[in-house]
Fold this protein.
Amino acid sequence: MGQTKEMSPVDQPAPSAPSIRPAGPADVAWIADFLRERWGATTVVVHGEVVDAAQLPALIVEPRRGLATYRRLGGDAELVTLDAVPPGGGTGTALLEALTRKLGAEGCARLWLTMTNGNLSALRFYLRRGFRLGGVRAGAVDRARKLKPSIPLVGEHGVPIHDELDLFGVVDPAAQDGPAVPPWSEPRIDPVVVARQGYAEELRFTAPIRNPAILQAFATVPREHFLGPGPWRLLSPMSLVSYWTTENADPCHVYHDVLVAIDEGRQLNNGQPSLWACLYDRLGLTAGAHVVHIGAGTGYYSAILAEVVGPVGRVTAVEIDPVLAVRATENLGRAWPQASVVAADGFSFRPEQPADAIVVNAGVTHFSLAWLDSLAPENGRLLVPLTNAENWGGFLLVTRQNGGVRNYPARFVHHVGIIPCIGGRDPEAETRLKEALVKAPLTAVRSLRRAPEEPDASCWLAGDGWWLSNAPVSESSLAGSRDGQRPLKEI
């Protein structure tokens, strides 16, 4: 197993049963820190596979003095890590028994684990608790060191570490006499991958998605990695009144068109997939584009955008909440080097390079001139939700053409209810927006104009240095917007 230290098993039963519970979103940071302390990293290398234990379902012994991480593999399960602090008090035994009961209730047949040949005390621990030897992979640890060089060379009692041992415990008595084949040694279809692909295919129809790159992105990016460990709290777009909890931590649960709570107290969610699939499809993104994502949260939709623009593209993910920004940095660092996270106020943020698209993930009452200034001169797009005091409104798509700095084609693309943008709301602007919505719906908007052009009879809503018009932009005004005014500074 790819650890930097050997597990400390617990041989004696606990004098009293400890409190054991499933891990939840509030445990994410502690689990990662605990694994790093005990294993040197959140990842372990087993049977040729790198597994991030911090992303797996887990059981915790209160007060946070023991942790078991595991995963389901078909009809069996794998125990990935088991730790108790301090050792010797029965905590490890209690965790193992609690996990076995839980898996048994879920219909699991066997519980498997992998250890090194140098972890002799752990081998004794599991054998004494009914586990049996399922197989030996000679030289597997030597190969694993190529993936994780920190794996120690020598184990207990000076035993050189070279091999992996597979052990299994019977969970379902009906499986007692059946063939015991490690689930990772059999060709198998990963149910999570199947669920993710089915989720993307469903979005193709419900969004709908026309851009194959967006479809592939939703079929590729593991949503569960951005949500913290399950079970998860879900919110249906058909009834936004109350959350409910998934029955367990199976990642398949999050591959539906639902919102998933990131911080339920603030009603902060990983948003509705079909909404964002629809909106991203309207942007017409291509490989190599630079996208600025305002309000990145934990990074899931930034990763979707990173997949769409590809390795030669760039995503600048902006998040004002420092805790979320750290999580987004860690999450995107897994597989998307083309995405970078900036902890900053997105309303006033100006990227170092012009953006082919700016996507705003929170509702505003007025436009940020910094966003307009940051658009690429040719076909730079701003996707932004204008929302009222109840956080309901709609997305506008504003496009910069021919390097213009006065007149921008704009159109309504989708209704939305969304969290407010910090720095992007103003009581007076909110009142003006309410009055504009009474006069005519957002669908009436055809263009955005900027000073020094003054609002005329076509004005739908005016702000500081800009106004929305229900009149389209003419070809002559597009040309004049650049030729008749000194261009704003490019960044």
